[in-house]
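Notebook, bench 3.
Goal today: get a predicted structure for ATP-binding protein from Sulfitobacter profundi so we can plan the truncation constructs. The sequence was checked against the plasmid map this morning, with no discrepancies at the termini. Length recorded as 336 residues. Pasting the sequence as submitted so the record is complete.
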Amino acid sequence: MKQWVEVQDQSAIAVVRRAARRLAAQHDWPKHRTDELAIVATEATTNILRYAEKGRALINAPAEGKGDKIVMIFTDRGPGISDMDHMFQDGMSSGDSAGLGLGAIRRLSDEFDIFSGSEVGTTIVCSFAKDSPLCAPHGVEAVGLRVCHPNEEECGDDYLLRQTPKATDILVCDGLGHGPEAAAASLEVTEAVTATRSFNSEPGAVMREVTEKLIGKRGAVAALVHIAQPQMVLRYAALGNIATLRVRNGEVKRLPVRDGRIGARATRGYEETFDLEPGDLMILHSDGLKTLRDSYLPQGLLWKSPLLIAGFLLDRAFRGRDDASIVVIRIARDAD
């Protein structure tokens, strides 16, 4: 499922629950895990209606997990949770649900995070592993999310995320327009990138090779990031309007881009190399999200997990008239 589900009435509970079960079935999840997904979907959606009256839900199987991981995002703009400890007690839920509360949602999830307050509403993120929990390589935590244009079923945005103990490599691309033709354009880019010999070390060389190969195609804009580990040196190349931000000690730096698109002339794009520091955040997103100014980065958000940051921003900054994608990367605070 690559679309936000609008949670506005009781019918949304069944819609979100069925979406969770359907996605698990597509990837042959065991019954007990599928049932747990359904419980969380039911509880969290019911809580949106009870405490905020409306909100959104997103259930997604990230491509890099190959179906072994499912994430859920639940977000609203209600009054927030004033007594978090109380809400984590079992039984604190709606009479229309199983009555398990946030405590059970947290226990059933392999990863759980929540961001709540009177000015920001509530965002809950959960991730689930099909079998044993998925472990990210030490030092870098990275997650990606994407959603379709509200009237489309195919997403014209895409991302690649590859992690090994020695490197993290990321591509974010946005096929021109939206719908099936944009999705096909993004697929051309992702296939061309994965076919290059330099994908794991040279973003500029990759951009040059891909732009040469796809001259005359519909085209896309894209950004490539390579993080060498344990050195924590980032190399970057970008062409077109994929926004890339580095957040360090609360200060946001926007990396420049080179105007243009894949499908026009060959180029290495704009390139930059710099050292990363423990605690640094990198955020890459397409123009399906609004420019991330301070109003979209409330106090406390940037200390949360990358999945929560990605889910919150994918909701709050979503333009609603295009596909949207975001990747959030955090360098571990104890990285040496």
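The two ends are 38 Å apart (CA to CA). DSSP finds seven helices and 15 strands in the chain.
Flagging this for group meeting.
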